[in-house]
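hi!! sorry for the late reply, been swamped w classes. u asked for the two structures so here they r. pasted raw, havent cleaned anything up. first the sequence of the first protein and right below it the tokens
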Amino acid sequence: MTGRTIIIDGYNLMQRVKGFGRALDDSLESARRALIGTVGRYLARKRLFDKTVIVFDGARNMGEFKNFKVGAVSVVFSAFRESADDRIISLIKKAAPPVRVAVVSDDNYVTNNARAHGADIISCADFMALAGGGKDRVCHEADDKKLDDDTMASINDSLKKAWRIK
């Protein structure tokens, strides 16, 4: 079986989703915890990925944050003078075939580079729809593009076929 990895552009997803905006009003830490919890619950239900990494920009924190793991979710902060975008691209490059990588981001730099290195792209809106985000969690720019149940099933089926999951 080939490995399946999902890499999530943490702050990009948090900023695109209304539900995390409320958590951001409390604190950045509470928004990160909310995102990690949402991803963890999704993984527990779907089990589509062998490895999950959420990458946050830690460059401005001068090494203040340490990488850690919550259940099956690895949380990674970029190093000082390294952007989260560059850390994501580095992780994609390090994933050796036959590992399949999917990247969750709406950032053009991330998605274009990820696609160039053979990664699959999942938009923030599509990921939140798959993760079971309610109407209050739909991405700001995608309000008119909500996924219905048939579309979500189709996306899941396509991922399963692409990654040869039974």
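now the second protein. again sequence first, tokens right under
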Amino acid sequence: MIVQELSTESDLVPVLEKAETLLIDFWSPICPPCKAFAPVFEAAAARHPSVAFCKVNTREEEELSSAFDVEHIPTLVAIRERVIVASQPGYLTGDQIDELLRQVQGLDMGALQENGPESGETEEVSP
């Protein structure tokens, strides 16, 4: 699967419409851990073709980064059914990405949405 670059919130709309689960990598070209993480992220995209993998350059897309409350880079944000279900700062290994996606895809979204944010860190994503 191709990793898609996101520049604006409007770029996110078609991705949210097509994919049940997406993983966004917030990165910067001047960040050494971000550069090292890029091939790990791309390899994970190849292993998980049903998940939309996206990247946001935080130096160029400050508004989009701010909308996701990104404070550290790299940061991965997992979205399932338009709900932010995980935000993980720091470099992850391929195995850790696989485990994160296993957990995200195993969530009971009905119960999560029914119980609201007090049951966990969730936020609905609406373009």
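hope this helps!! also noticed smth abt the second:
Residues 118-127 have pLDDT under 50 and may be disordered.
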